[in-house]
Amino acid sequence: MKKCLFFVALTLLLTTGASQAQKKFSVYGVGFYNLENLFDTCHDAGKNDYEYLPDGANRWTGLKYSSKLKNMARVLSEMGTDKLPGVGCAAIGVSEVENAKCLEDLCNQEPLKAKNFKYLLLEGPDRRGVDCGLVYNPKLFQVRDVKLVPYIYILPEDSARATRGFLTVSGTLAGEHVAIVVNHLPSRGATSFYREEGGRQIRLVVDSLVKADPNVKILVMGDMNDDPQDKSMAEALVAKRKMKDVPNEPGGLWNPWWDVLASGTGTLQYDGKWNLFDQIIVSNALLDRDGKKDYKTLKLWNYQIFRRDYLFQKEGKYKGNTLRTHAGGAWLNGYSDHLPTVVYLIKEQK
Prior knowledge:
31% strand; single chain; 20% helix; 18 strands; seven-stranded mixed sheet
């Protein structure tokens, strides 16, 4: 029984005061990772996936695909283990995945298969065929409902465009209703307007979740292709920098990564400068607003950028940058151009 309980969640002993008895808490990790082009080696009809075929620009062979799966599974299985050794994350949102078969193959990799990881992916209209998904440990996170909310282009001249939608998963974590919204907003090849519109549309998703259940606890995550202070996040989504500024209402959102980026670190680099596109934003119901550490229901406890030495280049011109799968036309057998992020939720055991 003790072994089973440890697997389900890490038990912490925290002393709340010299005269108070110790309390027991359970901690749960939830993460996000941009897998950087997890493509299989087969053509998907109607999709522009030709560079990831054996005779395509990247010479994407079975060997490369197998290596990519192995590398991604290593990262996903280790995410969350800094605080939850032997357990890891309960659920991880992912982006840049070609199809559900890729996630099936990923979950069949030994580190994830050993934990019986499951997956969710609803294919959308993106021209390259990349989508958002969720991998999860069913012993920790139980799925209630899943839907893909489409990204809507509102300008007439964009009527022929199509991009990733918002994967919205409702489930049960620690006996509570938790909703995870996984996103991949339009790239910086497009103007800020399109990401701002994405932020407004995510805001509508959040509002609809709250309307259906005012007690739902929401995690908005993804590769936003913007930093926390950019308009799409700060103004359109209304994700606040300071917890005290979050509206004390179910749909209020806090973005803890704003100050992380300001401290000089992030999740990807461009021209030697850090950006922090990979964010996990939490709703008001998850906030310990008064700092009393009253964890009778799920609350945000901690958060981190997941870092391991193997995720970085060790030498050459780009030493210190993330170790990618490809760079300059060469196969590096790396991981991703992004680093993962993790939040930790805590709840007092009864």
